[in-house]
């Protein structure tokens, strides 16, 4: 049975459900097969209603993602009559962007009907981008522009007793005749590989959106202990007393606090705030992607909000789908910064704790910290 519709009619998933429920047993399979063969998933209606779809034999299907706290419980699919089509209806903001996976039985899988994926710290996820979400173009490699180069060093630390892999981005036409601001990144390999930050730097410099900037991408040895727990202050000492002097000695930098930014995600945002707010004479710019300040009973809050105004510019960006404690705490930090007359840029977006959020907003930080001087 063909899907019966006029040329001008949009045949949507709600209509499919209605037609299958009211059809005879032979026609329902033809309706489902034709629909599945001609659509991708998730299926979006009215700019905000989303149908997650799975087609195949299953004892049960669920969805887990940013919007469930990655817990599939309570997000079970409904089987459409006795066909092999399973679905679940959700409603999201028109500009939301979320990571998810399907759970078929006990197997977590990428959505086989969704061609869109996003890299994450634990591998790729399927991506739901709502109609008004704008995908970032600055993360894409462009032809026809000058591009920077990346070198790699191994830097030992007497403070932590560890050696750090550091990737150093030098902007196009780098030379000692000029002095360059420096952006330091935690989770350096992830900012390069998952956030495409080299492309971001290349494109922003080519577009004269930022000054030619050196990027320093530091790879942690144990990010939990170094960024959030027992070694966080030793790691901060390494950053301030060993890494920064090395970069200033070996490269042509603007060696002032205003010429340096420290940027990080999650626990990397936590340690970036510690480094900047305990050393404002070294770092005058702090970028916090979804700052996870929760460890040690929110001790980083007391470091940032100690009542003493620091000469630091701050960008803080987080998602509304980041659990019950992170968004309200980031609002609390934002409110303190604004009330104390910090120069601050903040964004709260309908997204999760994801590299999809962080890759699309790294440009906001760089443009705020190091705008191009015409």
Description:
By secondary structure, this protein is of the alpha/beta class. Helix content is 30%, strand content 26%. The chain has an eight-stranded mixed sheet with strand order 10-11-13-12-14-15-16-17, sandwiched between helices. Strands 3, 6, 7, 8 and 9 form a five-stranded antiparallel sheet that branches. Helix 1 runs antiparallel to helix 2 and helix 4 (197-206) packs across helix 11. The longest helix is centred in the middle third of the chain and has 19 residues, at 232-250. The termini are far apart.
SS class: alpha/beta
Structure summary, number of beta strands: 17
What's the Cα radius of gyration? 24 Å
Average the pLDDT over all residues and give the rounded result: 95
How would a crystallographer describe the biggest sheet?
A: 8 strands, mixed
Q: State the share of residues found in helices, binned by percent.
A: 25-40%
Sequence of strands across the biggest β-sheet: 10-11-13-12-14-15-16-17
How many helices? 11
List the helices and strands and how they pair.
Elements (H helix, E strand, L loop, with lengths): L12 H10 L2 H13 L5 E3 L3 E7 L5 E5 L12 E2 L5 E7 L5 E8 L2 E3 L7 E2 L6 E5 L19 E8 L6 E8 L11 E4 L2 H6 L3 H10 L7 E6 L3 H5 L4 H19 L9 E6 L1 H12 L6 E5 L5 H10 L8 E9 L4 H14 L3 E10 L2 H5 L2 H8 L5
Parallel strand pairs: 12-13, 12-14, 14-15, 15-16, 16-17
Antiparallel strand pairs: 1-2, 2-5, 3-6, 4-5, 6-7, 6-9, 8-9, 10-11, 11-13
């Amino acid at each position: 049975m063909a899907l019966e519709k006029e040329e001008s009619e949009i045949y949507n998933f709600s209509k499919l459900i209605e037609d299958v429920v009211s059809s005879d047993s032979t026609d329902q399979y033809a309706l489902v097969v034709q629909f599945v063969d001609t659509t991708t998933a998730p299926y979006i209606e009215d700019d905000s209603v989303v149908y997650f779809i799975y087609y195949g034999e299953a004892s049960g299907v669920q969805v887990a993602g940013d919007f469930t706290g990655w817990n599939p419980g309570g997000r079970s699919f409904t089987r459409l009559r006795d066909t092999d089509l399973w679905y679940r209806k959700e409603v999201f903001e028109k500009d939301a962007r979320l990571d998810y996976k399907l759970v078929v039985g006990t197997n977590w899988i990428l959505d086989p009907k969704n061609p869109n994926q996003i890299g994450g710290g634990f591998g790729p996820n399927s991506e739901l981008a709502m109609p008004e979400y704008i995908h970032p173009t600055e993360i894409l490699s462009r032809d026809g522009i000058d591009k920077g180069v990346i070198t790699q060093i191994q830097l030992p630390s007497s403070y932590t007793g560890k050696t750090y892999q550091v990737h150093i981005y030098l902007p196009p036409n780098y030379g000692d005749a000029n002095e360059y601001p420096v952006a330091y990144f935690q989770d350096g390999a992830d900012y390069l590989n998952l956030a495409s930050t080299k492309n971001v730097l290349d494109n922003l410099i080519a577009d004269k959106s930022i000054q030619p900037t050196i990027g320093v991408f530091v790879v942690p040895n144990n990010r939990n202990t170094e960024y959030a727990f027992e070694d966080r202050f030793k790691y901060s000492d390494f950053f301030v007393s060993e890494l920064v002097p090395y970069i200033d000695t070996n490269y042509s930098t603007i060696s002032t606090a205003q010429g340096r930014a420290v940027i990080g995600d999650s626990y990397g945002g936590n340690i970036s705030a510690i480094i900047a707010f305990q050393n404002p004479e070294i770092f005058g710019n702090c970028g916090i992607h979804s700052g996870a300040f929760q460890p040690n009973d929110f001790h980083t809050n007391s470091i940032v909000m100690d009542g003493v105004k620091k000469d630091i510019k701050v960008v803080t960006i987080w998602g509304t789908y980041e659990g019950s404690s992170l968004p309200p705490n980031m609002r609390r930090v934002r409110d303190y910064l604004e009330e104390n007359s910090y120069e601050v840029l903040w964004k709260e977006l309908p997204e999760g704790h994801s590299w999809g959020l962080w890759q699309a907003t790294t440009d906001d930080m760089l443009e705020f910290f190091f705008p191009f001087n015409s």
